[in-house]
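G., before I forget:
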Amino acid sequence: MVQHSTRSIDRVMAAIADPTRRAILERLARGPARISDIAEPFPMSLTGFCKHVRVLERARLVRRTRRGRENTLELSPEPLRAVADWVLNYEHFWNERLDRLESFFAKEREKEKPR
Amino acid sequence: MVQHSTRSIDRVMAAIADPTRRAILERLARGPARISDIAEPFPMSLTGFCKHVRVLERARLVRRTRRGRENTLELSPEPLRAVADWVLNYEHFWNERLDRLESFFAKEREKEKPR
C-alpha cells in the first residue's frame, strides 16, 4: 500500500510544486528554447535557475540537448499523465457537488413557476 | 509570472508528492474515519503519521473534527481541482501523440488492403 518515496510520480509532483518550475514547463509548452533565453525573465541567478532545471530533468519533465554552444530544453510532458490520472480519481467529488447545486437551482426554478 | 512559493497550489502539489499522504487521501475517498483507524496499516509511529496529516490539513485537503474522544478526518477534495486544471493543460500533448499513432496504424491498414 505504501510505496517507496523515490517513485517517478513522487518526483514529478514535487517538481511541479514549485511555481518557477511550473513556469518553465509552461514556457516549454510553446516550444523548445535555449536555457539562457528561458532563464532571462526569472529574477534569480543562472545557477539558481539551473538547479530548478535539474529537478525537472530528474523528474523526466524536460530533455536537455546540446545545440552548438548552448543547451536547449524541450518539454517531455509524458510523466504528467500519471499526475492527471491520479488527480482525476477525485473528479467525481466536484461533479457530485455540481450535480447537487444544479438540482437545487432546478427546484428553486420549480418553486418560482406561476401556478 | 513567477508567483510566491506559498501559494495554495504549491502546498497542495507538495502534499500529494508523498505516497503516504496520497494513500491517506485514497482511504478518505471511501469516507471519513478516525485518525487511529487510518494510521493502523501504515508502518510508522502515530507521531510520524500525524505529521503527514498536518501537511494535508495545511493544504486544506483534509478536515479534522472531534467526535467524542477521538479526532475524525474527512476528505476535502476541492483543492485538487487546481492541480487537475493545471495538469490538463498538457493533455493535448498526449492526445496529439495518440492521434499520430492512430493515423500511422490507419495508413498501415491501408497498405495491407488487397487491391
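The interface with chain A takes residues 1-5, 7, 10-11, 13-14, 16-20, 22-23, 25-26, 29, 41-43, 75, 77-78, 80-81, 83-84, 86-91, 93-94 of chain B (CB under 8 Å). Chain B has six helices and three strands.

More on Monday.
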